Fold this protein.
Amino acid sequence: MIEFNLPSLGADMDEGTLLEWKIQPGDTIKPGQVIAVVDTAKAAIDVECWHESTVLQLLVDVGAKIPVGTPMALLLEPGEDPHSARRTSSEAPRLIEGENLTDRRPRISPAARRRAVDLGLNLDQLKGHGPKGAVTLEDVEMAAHLTHEPQHEPQHEPDHEQAMRQTIAAAMSRSKREIPHYYLSETIALDKAMSWLQEHNAQSTLQERLLPNVMLLKAVALALREFPQLNGVWLDNAFKPARATDLGVAITLRQGGLVAPVLHQVADSTLTHLMSELASLVERARNGSLRSSELDGAGITVTQLGDQGVDSVLGVIYPPQVALVGFGRISERPWVKDGQLCVVPTVISSLSADHRVSDGHYGARFLSEVRRLMQTPEAL
Amino acid sequence: MSLVMTYREALREALRDAMQRDPRVFLMGEDVGRYGGSYAVSLGLLEAFGPERIRDAPLSELGFVGAGIGAALAGMRPIIEIMTVNFSLLALDPLMNTAAALRHMSGGQFSVPLVVRMATGAGRQLAAQHSHSLEGWFAHIPGLKILAPATVEDARGMLWPALLDPDPVLIFEHAQLYNLEGDPGDWASIDINRARIRRAGKDLTLITYGGTLGKALAAAEELAGVGIDCEVIDLRVLRPLDDATLLASVCKTRRALVVDEGWRSGSLSAEIITRIIEQGFYELDAPPARVCSAEVPIPYPRHLEEAALPQVASIVTAAQQLCQGKTT
């Protein structure tokens, strides 16, 4: 038997509210099937299940707010008998010293519990930062302080915009607090790339047409192969390199806010495939229907502000990643070729990187590689 | 005017003072006379008071403790010196079954106004049989009063009230303290009932006694540097424990860490923590914790002995763990 736990739906996500079950007991699940919709601070996410299985029991009620890792459903493996089935967790258990996995009672210190009751706070919704994750007096006082913000009107729906801003605020503050950023930029001549693109698009159907964005994404991914110190996460005081070139793509939402869903294995994908994946991501990001597998696991984020019309972007690294690549608007600029002045489409690329993991020289070589790759667009 | 003397000198002055005030007081133990005391506490006292009042005893704790009990019963005010707590085991029967029990067993007809002084503790590579800290064990016995002077002031001041007590009082002197220098301060008004707050603080109550007081205070200094403000309590009296002072402090700080050189299991730290939980459970913001000696016979090699005993580093680590999540 498999215990399906709420997966992490983003590096800055700790909990979610179950909005909808897409399955019921008795249904079969195919790998990749969306089985539930969970609301996070940023958006409603389709939660995918990768186990081929049959649903035995749903453990969480619609409307419940649960922390990441909470068992949501019990699934039977193919051929398993419900009566003799042994319960195994669908994710590797994260063993915390001294904690019993089946112990679900919240740990709250006696003083904190009493204060919470006095203040009328719901004990289940308190986050603990004390020893072994216990809720302390300070946690209760912080929670009370937050809930005492003046409410202008009764809100029955979670205020996504405010919650999203708060999430972004927390992530960006943490980034600037903890990550020693260094910044580099490189102007890349795109004459060869743009003429190749024009020719390619002229010979393609509407669906196959490409935008320069995907060429830049692929160039970044290929360059990361040569410069792996920019692709990964900083955890437990050390750099953990990513195993694949999964790129976060920064997408602004029309209603305000920013998400960075992940494009997987960019270096191994064709430009056409990337184009359709990217288009789908953008659409679903704007609709608020991203999938759980798209929110976690990027080793780097790329932000392209070309539409908005700035020359370059020096961005803030999205923790726990260790680098951010930026591209400005593709502009015609004066350029020198073979000693002659000419006009060439160019883009200013930039790198914000974590100086704990890489040095300027390394970052510079990475950007040079991106530039070099963009001079041979047919090889992308 | 501030005076500086060593803990050893303070004890000597206390002995001299007691002998001068009351002719019934005498000191008996191994090497206290001609040798001047195995820790030099009674150096010069034989010359000052003569062999009737500074009595060298044969190598028989059972014998001379029993004789001391007899002398106390007969109206004297003996101070029996057992060289170290390690040898007190040989006199455990008379201490527990006669000295501690006689008032009760005689329906109040007899009392044993005996004072026993012993050196205790580890830290000088004297190995398993000579490094015990058994004062917590003795604190288990009703009928005894247990004192642990940790400062020069207490070393100077605790002896006289102990002699005035009509019942047996055991005074434990941590061997690492004899060279401690300090001001005997207001020694004449020292009580033998209460614990004392040696450092006021608001985040964590550090409870200790005797030889580990210095380490606790050093840990408190280090912790202050990382934003943890410790209140350090010196128990002074191990039996009866001063619950009121302990609980008042824990109600204020909401976190308790006991440092005890005894072995963990069944130690005085266990008793203290139980009392804190019994009386202050709803005030606690974190489970009470303790730093004790590792549960092994105390090792001989220096690095192993150091690893087995509570140290400033282990106290600091334990305090930081207790304060996890604290941001203010």
The mean pLDDT of chain B is 97. Residues 7-21 of chain B form the longest helix (15 residues). Chain B touches chain A at residues 254, 281-287, 321-322, 324-328 (CB under 8 Å). Residues 5-189 of chain B form a domain with the Rossmann fold fold (CATH 3.40.50.970).
